[in-house]
Amino acid sequence: MASLRAPLLRAAGAASRRAPASLRIASASRAVASPAAAPSRAFSGSACRSNDFESPFGINSLAKLSDEEEMLREAVRRFATEVVEPKVREMDENEKMDPAIIKGLFEQGLMGIETSQDHGGAGCSFTAAIIVIEELAKVDASVSVLCDVHNTLVNTVLRKYASKELMDKYLPQLSTEVLGSFALSEPSSGSDAFAMKTTCKKDSNGDWIINGSKMWITNSAEAEFFIVFAQGDPSKGYKGISAFAVEKSMGVEIAKKEQKLGIKASSTCTVNFDDVKVPAANLIGEEGKGYKIAIEILNEGRVGIGAQMVGIAQGAYEKSVRYAYDRTQFGKPVASFQGMQFQMADAATEIEAARLLVYNAARLKEEGRPFTKQAAMAKIYSSQVAQSVSGSAIEWAGGVGFTRETGIEKYWRDSKIGAIYEGTSNIQRQTIAKLQEKEMGL
């Protein structure tokens, strides 16, 4: 297996334009030259003024990727195929992430995609992160969501809202070795995320004491760092919630690990806080502004989940279609029958539509334009497509598709979570409907 090392290089740019950093993942046996002379989209992971991105290189399709994004896609595809795929079934059966996979993600530079090079990251675009999530999900949704939550939620919260001191302290660790987790949901606080009971109170020294429990927390079994939301003043409702940077070593307890239908290798645990003392400096943003942080970050996270669902659908489609062309019945490949071809064509069309919804939301986010409605649409539709296509993929492969031998059934199991986490499908429908009403002046 070729070694895939990820040197972090800064993309060349015009002196008058802020040059984005670019991620390079090159095989040790084949060096990839930097396309400095070729024009590349000057997209940044941070929100910028929309007029900075008014067709800088002419009108492009949503499928148009920069040279850096194209190379990233190919490199992640190699990593997923050569490093992740051989371990997928074992991890699924054991319901445990292989530590070597997590280490590999860090070594490839895939855990600090939008983080600046000054903090050990790659400084790439938000779309670059979406590409990584999609490509990993084609092989294993568990690895994909681990990378997704770490990048689009944990790292982004610190980059956008934390003090310089917190960024300087934690982002280099999160880019190179420390896995992060996002602790928002609670037993009584699911879709109503701000009905939380976890409390935060200041002690006599001005530090914070956190008490309570979180549940359904992704990455929690392996994480050493947590973004934690807690209520400081219930009388203020959601305006009493604050966000904190919490190290596991501060006293975080990882409790029950859930046994799930799908994404089994991704840890989902209850996390307890019993008089956990957090330094005053570890408050993220302003006191009482945690709700604003959570809302804005989850909008970005939903685009990531959309990418994960697109990857699941594409992975199931490709694996099943290849099998259907290899299997012969009545003297010809099963996939050559018109009834099968029509189903496959419909599935391919749905996948493409879902992908374009996801890419559109990602580009809107990069351009600093409103994207909340598009993110909700991307998530709800891509989760529906993932369930539909992966279910059809099982049928296209017949009896073999129903067994665990081919791994096709795993895509269907993994797809179901897309309608649930980071905002259920009905929550997405509610968001879309409200924004439609506003746009129509109703």
Question: Topology, please?
Answer:
Elements: E1 4-5, E2 8-10, E3 21-23, E4 26-27, H1 67-84, H2 88-94, H3 99-107, H4 126-139, H5 141-161, H6 164-176, E5 180-183, E6 199-202, E7 208-218, E8 225-231, E9 241-247, E10 253-257, E11 268-278, E12 283-284, H7 290-326, E13 328-329, E14 332-333, H8 338-366, H9 372-396, H10 398-402, H11 408-415, H12 425-440
Parallel strand pairs: 5-8
Antiparallel strand pairs: 1-4, 2-3, 6-7, 7-11, 8-9, 9-12, 10-11, 13-14
Family: Belongs to the acyl-CoA dehydrogenase family.
EC number: 1.3.8.5
Protein name: Short/branched chain specific acyl-CoA dehydrogenase, mitochondrial
What is this entry, summarized?
Its cofactor is FAD. With 442 residues, the chain is α+β, with helices and mostly antiparallel strands.
What does this entry look like structurally?
By secondary structure, the chain is an alpha+beta fold. Among the domains are: 180-287, Butyryl-CoA Dehydrogenase, subunit A, domain 2, CATH 2.40.110; 292-440, Up-down Bundle (Butyryl-CoA Dehydrogenase, subunit A, domain 3), CATH 1.20.140.10. Helices cover 46% and strands 15% of the residues. The chain is built from twelve helices and 14 strands. α4 (126-139) packs across α7, α5 (141-161) runs antiparallel to α7 and α8 (338-366) runs antiparallel to α9. The radius of gyration is 22 Å and the shape is globular.
Summary tags:
442 residues, alpha+beta, Butyryl-CoA Dehydrogenase, subunit A, domain 2, Butyryl-CoA Dehydrogenase, subunit A, domain 3, four-stranded mixed beta sheet, four-stranded antiparallel beta sheet, 12 helices, 15% strand, globular, disordered N terminus, AcylCo_DH-like_C, phosphoprotein, oxidoreductase
